[in-house]
Specification:
The structure is a single chain. The protein is an alpha/beta fold. Helices cover 39% and strands 22% of the residues. The chain contains eleven helices and 14 strands. The strands form four sheets. The chain has a six-stranded mixed β-sheet with strand order 8-11-12-5-13-14, with helices on both faces. Helix 5 (178-187) crosses helix 7. The chain is extended. It starts with a helix and ends with a helix. 30% of the residues are buried. Bound molecules: adenosine-5'-triphosphate (ATP) and magnesium ion. The site of adenosine-5'-triphosphate has 11 residues, from helix 2.
Length: 306
């Protein structure tokens, strides 16, 4: 009897192992269901296109290839407030200002003052809590996202490159000729880099075979090529040496003369020649004027400058 008992007991252990195995297999598979359920709860972006989009005015774009709803790039922030999530504090508070057509505007402020958030708001990555943004009198909340984003260019804080040739990275939609691209490369000061490479030069995923400065220059070349009427730069020149940077600032002044440019800069030198400076503090505008007037006023900008 004891022998029989032992044999059966040992068998139960085997059964228990298999039970545990099946149980964990089941919970592993149910994770997919759980994930799908979570995806259904993500708040969706607003519509990419609206029927009313086609009624918007159409102006020729600077590259002469498309049309755009932006006539000359005037931007108005009207009592604009925004927060990241319903339960987080307001990040930009009641902003009221105007950026004139073709103006070069610098945004400065301490870390966390809301500079990058200002850029995200223009692209409607964040929808306003209250207030509106108008581009040439058109409320950007009332147009399709695709149309809005197609007509703005951002050169982000972090340069983004995809795996592929130099050409696909500069002209992802394949709309421009080789000559146009090579011209842009020399405009941003990449001609030296380009001497022993050609447009088919292979760029690894995320551009790991390039220096950070080169990556930024390629991103800037991409923006130059598209030439939308409004361009945003988020510390885009942070990793470029002084000489290249001043060269680039010259190109920006030349090549983007017709564009409205908003630059977020940590180095005051980058923006000291701009038309207007916005000084942000805790999501509020504390100063807005030409750099010259702000320096005379000896306020926060003067302190940053010093
Ligand atoms: P930096 O100079 O460091 O780039 P910044 O001025 O660009 O700073 P923002 O990134 O605009 O600062 O951040 C402004 C405020 O918004 C900060 O207080 C930050 O904590 C908050 N914030 C930024 N991103 C998020 C997010 N994804 N979710 C919630 N709060 C955020
Ligand atoms: Mg930032």
């Amino acid at each position: 009897s004891i022998g029989l008992l032992l044999t059966y007991s040992l068998n139960i252990i085997k059964q228990l192992f298999s039970l545990m195995g099946r149980f964990s297999g089941l919970s592993k598979m149910l994770i997919s269901v759980e994930r799908c359920e979570n995806f259904t709860k993500i708040v969706q972006e607003k519509y990419p296109t609206l029927i009313t989009d086609k009624d918007l005015p159409k102006y020729p774009s600077y590259n002469g290839k498309e049309t755009t709803f932006i006539s000359n790039g005037k931007i108005n922030f009207n009592d604009y407030s925004v927060k990241y999530r319903p339960n987080t504090p307001i990040v930009l508070k009641n902003l009221n200002f105007e950026i004139k057509p073709k103006e070069k505007v610098g945004v400065v402020g301490r870390t966390g003052s809301g500079k990058s958030t200002l850029c995200l708001s223009l692209f409607r990555l964040l929808e306003p809590t209250s207030g509106n943004i108008f581009i040439d009198g058109i409320n950007i909340s009332e147009i399709g996202l695709e149309l809005l984003r197609k007509n703005l260019t951002i050169i982000p804080q972090e340069p983004i490159l995809i795996e592929g040739s130099l050409r696909t990275n500069i002209d992802p939609t394949n709309c421009y000729t080789d000559t146009e691209i090579i011209e842009i490369l020399s405009e941003v000061g990449l001609d030296e880099f380009f001497v022993n490479k050609n447009l088919d030069y292979h760029i690894e995923d995320n551009g790991i075979n390039l220096s950070i400065g080169e990556k930024q220059l390629i991103c800037i070349a991409r923006a130059f090529l598209k030439k939308t009427k409004i361009i945003l730069m988020d510390e885009a020149t942070a990793n470029i040496d002084y000489k290249t940077e001043s060269f680039l600032q010259n190109s920006i002044n030349q090549g983007m003369k017709e564009c409205t440019v908003i630059t977020i800069a940590h180095r005051i030198k980058t923006i000291i020649n701009y038309d207007k400076i916005i000084v942000l503090k805790n999501g509020e505008i504390v100063e807005i004027d030409s750099p010259k007037n702000l320096l005379i006023k000896k306020g926060l900008f003067y302190q940053l400058y010093k």
